[in-house]
Design a protein that fits this description.
alpha/beta; 32% helix; Rossmann fold; globular; four-stranded parallel beta sheet
């Protein structure tokens, strides 16, 4: 179906109205991350979701931040809770936000890469 390899980890909820931006959740959050995505190269942004059901341990979060900081990879990371501290740990190559419209982000042309589209951690 796709001309690229996808490695989903976790689950995604189908959303059939990707063009509909009238949802309350979308309207109530800052959508600056879409503007940021619009300025990135095609397939150059790694999408990372730290999960909304299970929390990621502090040690795993620090490991992820260290990898992102030294990797040179652009990223959009969704993390509930301590987003300010995670932003500081991850460096300047990406964004850390408390929420995003996941399927719209995954459909954005800048999200992707040679081997993976997104990572969802449930540790």
């Amino acid at each position: 179906m796709f001309s690229f390899l996808i490695h989903p980890i976790g689950h995604a909820i189908p959303y059939f109205n990707l063009g509909d931006s009238s949802s309350t959740a979308t309207a109530s959050h800052d959508l600056n991350y879409f503007r940021w995505l619009d300025f990135q190269l095609s397939s150059s942004v790694l999408y990372i979701s730290l999960g909304s059901i299970l929390s990621v341990s502090r040690a795993r979060t620090k490991e992820l931040a260290a990898v992102l900081r030294v990797s040179g990879v652009r990223f959009l990371c969704v993390a509930l809770g301590e987003t300010t501290q995670l932003r500081e740990m991850c460096g300047e190559m990406g964004l850390v936000v408390p929420w995003c419209d996941q399927l719209k982000v995954l459909s954005h042309s800048s999200v992707g890469g040679p081997d993976a589209l997104w990572v969802e951690l449930h540790c």
